[in-house]
Amino acid sequence: MLVNLQGPWSPLLGRLAVSQIPYENPILVGTFVLVVALGMAILGAVTYYGKWGYLWREWLTTVDHKKIGIMYILVGLVMLLRGFVDAAMIRSQQAMAVGPDSAGYLGALHGYLTPFHFGQIYTAHGVIMILFAATPILVGIMNIIVPLQVGARDMAYPYLNAVGLWLTTAGAALVMTALFIGDFAHAGWFGNLPLNELPYSPGVGVDYWIWAFQLSSVGTTLGGINLIATIVKMRAPGMTWMRLPMFTWASLSANIISLTSFPVLTVSLALLSLDRYLGTHFYTAGMGGNLMLYNDLFWIWGHPEVYFVILPAFGMLSEIIPVFSEKTLFGYTGMVLASFGIAGVSWGVWLHHFFTMGSAPDVNAFYSVSTMLVGIPTGVKVFNWLFTMYRGRLRFELPMIWACAALFFLLVGGMTGMMNAFTTNDYMVHNSVFVVAHFHLMLLLIVYAIFGAVNFWFPKVFGFKLNERWGKWFFWLFTAGTATVFIPMFTLGFMGMTRRLDYIPYAQWQPLLDAEMAGIVLYSLSAVYLVAQLYVSLRDRALNRVGADAWGTSRSLEWATPSPVPFYNFAYIPHVNARDEWAWRKENGIAQLRHDRYEGIHMPKNTGVPLVLGALSLVLAFALVWRMWWLAALCLAGIVILVIMRSFAKDTDYIVSPEEVKRVEDALWAGTHARGTEAEGGRGRGAVGGGLSPAHSPSAPK
Amino acid sequence: MTHGADNPLEHPEVQLANGRSYLLVYLFSCALLGAATWLVTRQAMTPIGLFLLTTALAGVVVVAQGVFLLHMEFSETQRWHTVSLVLFIPLFILTIGLSAWMFHGLYRRTMLMPEMPAPAAAAPAAAGMPSMPAMPGMQR
Ligand code: HEM
Ligand SMILES: [Cu+2]
Predict the structure, then answer these.
(1) Among A355, A436, A438, which is best to mutate for testing ligand 1, by the most ligand atoms less than 8 A from CB?
(2) pLDDT number for residue B113
(3) How many helices (H) and strands (E) does chain A have?
(4) At CA B97, angle to CA B32 and CA A278, rounded to 5?
(5) Cβ(A27)–Cβ(A106) below 8 Å
(6) Which of A353, A385, A527, A597 is the most buried (most CB within 10 A)?
(7) Measured between beta carbons, which residues in chain A are less than 8 angstroms from residue B98?
(8) Which H/E stretch holds residue B32?
(9) Which of A156, A348, A604 sits opposite B94 (nearest CB)?
(10) Coil, strand or helix: which one is A331?
């Protein structure tokens, strides 16, 4: 072994030992029991209803971009819940551990979490929310919507798409494993160096963090390649660049920056792994190492990453606002240029994350200016949205209220970002909770856009609308929670509260911390309404069925497909005549046209290989965390062999017969007619199966 | 969606693949990089000499891999390989260049790097800053 490991190591189990299971921690044991019970309930239900075959055929082995997208979103929602619980624990600890007289429980001096646990919780919270909640949900939505918007039947690489999904899922599963076997990193989501080096973090926590990051990074990179190829190569005839829907433009710009920046993350973490596994000195404090190199490399990825998550959110706003303003999007070309302007600027601002490092004043000045430059394209976007709404017929349905609130958060988050961009100011607020509040408002903008988009596109994917009344309750409670948590947080930041405190020495901060706690209670309450919204919507789905054009004023190409979308998306590849194709068809009275005969459709076959690759990667990462070399070698060999075998597989696609297409289309049309007329040219609704129509595709042998 | 109906072996990209040249370039890169590692671990030259030599070796490897593994060429069908590389160059310059600029300033003000050649070490004094006294434990 090239490094000095603390604690025992055996060839068979590596560093793994029974003592690594935190069975003496009541919180973790309780969580474990809950997770096991929930897992058993789900597995039991699947077995009881005999759904294993369905699950395997229709979901686990699918290469359908819509189903993969839905699974991405489900993974993201599960991790969102986990990240939220972490947040609630951070907030309650900070509300309890104030002042020297505050009581301590469960072995903690103050509050109920020891510094060791608290560190893991805030690290896990950040990693989970950014990489395993926001990113998968956004990727999922892009996955579903982009092929529909460009008029394609699937992604450019359906198989690769499934591989990306299962790698991301493996990353999420690895983070969850860290909860019950061993521990997680405690040096913050972006990793403080040299704290993350082996001598200072001798446990496996940092290794979990590294490999979870790496898995998700590979998954996201593959997804990025796929989305770019889809947008460049799979556009329907007539879908010229300047007719591309804005969400697709936003996805393109976002994935270009992800494709160019994720490799840097891979390298920065690989060098850290070399330090921890082979004893090199890339980031050590002595021996020629340079710990600031880590910050440099990490944020070369880190800042483009924050724009990778915000650009799709901007795209969602650009789709929602015109539909509920009943106008075209104002300033289309400007919007496109602004997206790429933001993406371009995002490559050259990363040093604003470590202004206080002590680089030369002209360096700081350069990055200060480049950071502020992003305000120009962002401002263009904001004004375009406002001009879209100006003199529009505004309808404040669910997607629209989420979108409008998102604009508000963009304003507050962006302005506080500008404040951070002043180097002088940043010396005051760096590493304070003011910065934390800044980027949370930015990320909340994304969350609001996502909730808007989910409400907006849900009927397209599932064929019925989400309940409006419960949804509005959810919106207002969630917004109340946001205000109650983050206004005090900004205040505390200005008062000098640094981030990541497990104990707060100043009793006079108690009221503000209590207010933040109240905000978390509001958030929790809002989650109840979200569940209620989903439940009521599902229960009453028969009442809320929609046709192709769910909102009556939809504009872009995806609304030309029936709701729910059949597995082949378009019976005929559409011919695109205009920007806002669906609106154009309605205006020209051809929205209701129907083909009288169909042709066979060439589709990819299902395959279980991506799932197995994901599982092998999970075990590989687990083996690397615990340094079980034989297991790691075995999994790696398995992955290589499987990839080679798959590349020789010939039986990967099939033709859907014209009769089959006719049967599905007839059912969709019959649905429309049985329900009478549909608002403004709605074409069909889901008579085929519940929710998504089944894929009818025979599984490929491997 | 992939058009599996065509034979994948007929794709121009796949046709370019050549096991022998892949293996040769692989061995060639291993040899050069191994030589660089060996020189560095032996500290066979002055730091600046090592820096220049390893950079040169890395450059040769990059070119060899670019041509033989990544098929940088200008033919009608394969031009896109080269185009995508060229599109990366500005980013490359941006990240490496700005990082170098930043570290250059940083070393002068915070970490006295022992390996820095003389002109850089003399620069703080030239810029009107007092040079830092040696501290215990500092590597010289
Ligand atoms: C108007 C645009 C923006 C500006 C001018 C801006 C500026 C800044 C600055 C200067 C910092 C560093 C503060 C410090 O650590 O002292 C910062 C931190 C941060 N920003 Fe922004 N930002 C902007 C938009 C965004 C967006 C869109 C996101 C994400 C969606 C975001 C996420 C973050 C994160 C995650 C951090 C801190 C990460 C950490 O320290 O853990 N920002 N921002
Ligand atoms: Cu940034």
Answers:
(1) A438
(2) 57
(3) 21, 2
(4) 45
(5) yes
(6) A385
(7) 348, 351, 366
(8) helix B19-42
(9) A348
(10) coil
- Per DSSP, A63 falls in state -
Coil, strand or helix: which one is A397?
coil
From its phi and psi, is residue A188 left (phi > 0), alpha (psi between -120 and 50) or beta? Answer: left
**Per-residue pLDDT for A627 more than 90?**
yes
Output the DSSP codes for A560-573.
GS-BSPPTTS-SS-
A565 C-beta neighbours (distance < 10 Å), count: 25
When CB atoms are compared, the residue of B102, B108, B111 closest to A351 is B102
* Closest approach atom of ligand 1 to CA A126: 41
**Beta-carbon count within 10 A of A673 CB:** 10
In angstroms, the Cα distances linking A165 to A170, A223, A691 are 9, 8, 21
Q: Which amino acid is at A50?
A: G
SS (H, E, C) A416-479: HHHHHHCHHHHHHHCCEHHHHHHHHHHHHHHHHHHHHHHHHHHHHHHCECCCHHHHHHHHHHHH
Q: Is the pTM of this model over 0.95?
A: no
Neighbours of A399 (CB within 10 A): 28
User: Quick check: A234 contacting B, CB < 8 Å?
Assistant: yes
- Sign of the Cα torsion A251, A255, A256, A258 reads positive
Chain B contacts of A363, Cβ < 8 Å? 101-102, 105
Residues ≥6 apart with Cβ < 8 Å to A573: A151, A152, A153, A236, A237
Chain-chain contact of A155 with B102 (C-beta, under 8 angstroms): no
- Ligand 2 centroid distance, CA of A302 (Å): 7
- Cα dihedral sign, A418-A423-A428-A434: positive
Identity at A288, one-letter amino acid code: G
Which of A290, A362, A604 minimises the CB distance to B2? A604
Residue of B nearest to A295 (CA): B99
- Radius of gyration from C-alpha coordinates of chain B: 22
- Least Cα distance to A308 among A250, A370, A382, A258 occurs for A258
* pLDDT tens digits along A428-438: 999 999 999 99
Cross-strand pairs, A498? A432
Within 8 A of A234 by CB-CB distance, chain B residues are: 1
